[in-house]
Amino acid sequence: MRPAPASQSPACRLLFVYGTLMPTATSVLGGIERARLAAVAVDLGPATVCARLYDLGGYPGLVPDPAGTVEGELLELADPDATWPWLDAYEGVAPAGGSATDEYRRQIVPVRLLSDPNQDMAAWAYVMAREPAGLTPLPMRRWVA
To answer: What is the pLDDT of residue 35?
Structure first.
C-alpha cells in the first residue's frame, strides 16, 4: 500500500535520504544511524527531488532547486516521533526547528519515486540551512559514499 502524501497525513512518516543515511551507502560516517534506520524504516525505493548536490568533504549537502535533480531513497518511518530526535542530533539540527548556526534543517520537499514518476509525494529531507559559500554544485545526481 502506498503511503499517503504528507499533506494528507497528520504527521509525515516519509524521509528522503541522499547521502550517508542511504541504505546503499558504504562510508563509515553514518553507519550506526543507517543500521538504526534499517530497523525502524521501510525502504520504499529509489526516488528523486528537485535540488542541487554539494560535496561538503565526506558527506553531501542538498539545496532545493527546481532546475536540478538529486537521486536518493525514500524511507517510511515506523515511529517518526521516536526517530526524529536521534536523526536531528546526527544531522546537527537543534531541537524546536533549529538555530542560526545549524548546517542543515529538516524540511518537507516534493519527492518522486522512480517506480511512480508521475506522482509527487511529500517527505522530510535534511537540506542545507544556507547556500554553501564558494562551492560549486556536483555534476552528478547521486552521492556515492
So the answer is: 87
* 66-103 pLDDT, tens digit each: 999 999 999 999 999 999 999 998 888 876 555 667 78
- Is there a contact between 40 and 87 (Cβ–Cβ < 8 Å)? no
Q: What is the mean pLDDT of the chain?
A: 84
Q: Is the separation of the CB atoms in 64 and 80 below 8 Å?
A: no
- Residues present in the chain in total: 145
What is the pLDDT averaged over residues 108-115?
94
Q: Of 19, 21, 22, nearest to 33 (Cα)? A: 21
Contact 16, 50 (CB under 8 A): no
8 Å CB contact between 76 and 13: yes
User: How many CB atoms sit inside 10 A of residue 15's CB?
Assistant: 25
Pairwise CA distance, residues 82 & 78, whole Å:
9
Q: Following CA atoms 15, 21, 25, 29 in sequence, which dihedral angle do they give, to the nearest 10 degrees?
A: 170
Q: Name the residue with cell 555534476.
A: 139
Name the residue with higher pLDDT: 19 or 109. Answer: 109
Report the number of secondary-structure helices (H) and strands (E) in the chain. 2, 7
